[in-house]
Design a protein that fits this description.
The protein folds into two domains: 10-59 and 83-116 and 137-157, no CATH class; 158-321, no CATH class. It contains twelve helices and eight strands. The chain has helices spanning 33-38, 50-54, 84-99, 136-144, 159-178, 185-202, 204-215, 222-238, 243-254, 263-277, 284-296, 300-303; strands at residues 10-15, 43-48, 63-67, 72-76, 106-108, 120-123, 129-133, 150-152. Helix 6 crosses helix 9. It is elongated and about 75 Å long. This is DUF1722 domain-containing protein. Residues 196-312 form the DUF1722 domain.
Length: 321
């Protein structure tokens, strides 16, 4: 089975302002051209603005998080109106709707008191902030959908975080396509085989755990097995790849060509991997060469490895890591 980028678009949730919708408290937006115009070629967006959908106007008074003795509350910054409980009720209803959307991930607006995933300012009673909070809607989302890939627009400016998140949404999409009601243990084994090297590039520990899960699959009911596998898989993929871990996988791959490559080709592959290992070229360089050899020598096991084509080449994500 040759791995290709999905023709079917991936459905992702996103904070509305990142698509250019003028919904922010000041009437503005935070349009992200990469998300809307580049990634958008492969994505069907489901836009959400918690504050507007909850019922607040545009423009509106800004809000912030305030820590009390027992809770973190969502208050308007100047007048101190408490929207916490109503926002939480709205969030539960909206999450019920989103559950039907078949999402494969969500991109949140960073530092927002409603949508921020991490490092949102939380003020103490004296008005001193610490960047320790999570937005009200974002917190409810990750509690409802704990294994789904999520990220914020701020971290997506980092090439490594961007590549990691987009890789995960494509894996999550493939998982959904595989893990339907008619799926079998055979399907899970095929999925695991396709993703082995990708998992290894993130976490050898999770690679081993997943291998044991699959090997002992008959000890668990299908629902338990699939749930356990997905949880460990997505936990492992959240861990960043590194040059060292990628080099290990590349060297592992090179072992499949011991008999096919000429002496010159072997030396070329060794040198390219070493050049990547020393940080002189991005990951795409050894990957392109390996894909060339995979096709040239029709290496069937590697043809099916998602690691070599985890997302559309047009996104150029591995040109920068």
């Amino acid at each position: 089975m040759v791995i290709e980028a999905q023709v079917e678009k991936i459905k992702l949730g996103i904070s509305s302002c990142l698509l250019g919708e003028q919904v922010r408290y000041d009437g503005g937006h935070k349009l992200d051209h990469f998300l809307k115009d580049t990634l958008g070629r492969y994505v069907d967006w489901v836009a959400v603005c918690p504050e507007v959908e909850y019922g607040l106007p545009v423009p509106r008074e800004a809000m912030h998080l305030v820590r009390t003795e027992s809770d973190v509350r969502l208050l308007t910054s100047r007048t101190g109106i408490d929207h916490t409980d109503d926002m939480r009720r709205w969030a539960r209803q909206r999450l019920n709707e989103l559950e039907k959307e078949d999402l494969c991930g969500f991109i949140f607006k960073s530092r927002s008191p409603s949508s921020g995933l991490r490092s949102v300012k939380v003020y103490n009673p004296s008005g001193i902030p610490t960047q320790t909070g999570v937005g009200v809607f974002a917190g409810a989302f990750i509690e409802r959908f704990p294994v789904m890939p999520v990220e914020d627009d701020g971290r997506l400016q980092n090439p490594s975080f961007r590549e990691n998140f987009i890789e995960r949404i494509f894996v999550f999409k493939r998982w959904k396509q595989m893990a339907g009601q008619s799926s079998s243990l055979k399907d899970l084994i095929a999925f695991h085989t396709d993703h082995k090297l990708l998992i290894l590039s993130h976490s050898p520990k999770h690679y081993t755990t997943l291998g044991r899960l699959v090997a002992g699959a008959k000890k668990l009911k299908k629902q338990q097995l699939f749930a356990a596998y997905l949880e460990v898989l997505m936990e492992g993929l959240r861990l960043p790849t590194t040059t060292k871990k990628n080099t290990n996988v590349l060297q592992h791959i090179s072992g499949y060509f011991k008999r096919q490559l000429s002496a010159g080709e072997k030396q070329e592959l060794i040198e390219v991997i070493e050049t990547y290992h020393h940080g002189l070229v991005p990951l795409i360089v050894p990957i392109v060469l390996i894909n060339h050899y995979v096709k040239k020598y029709d290496e069937q096991y590697l043809l099916r490895q998602v690691y070599l084509k985890p997302h559309p080449a047009e996104l150029m994500l591995r040109n920068h890591v």
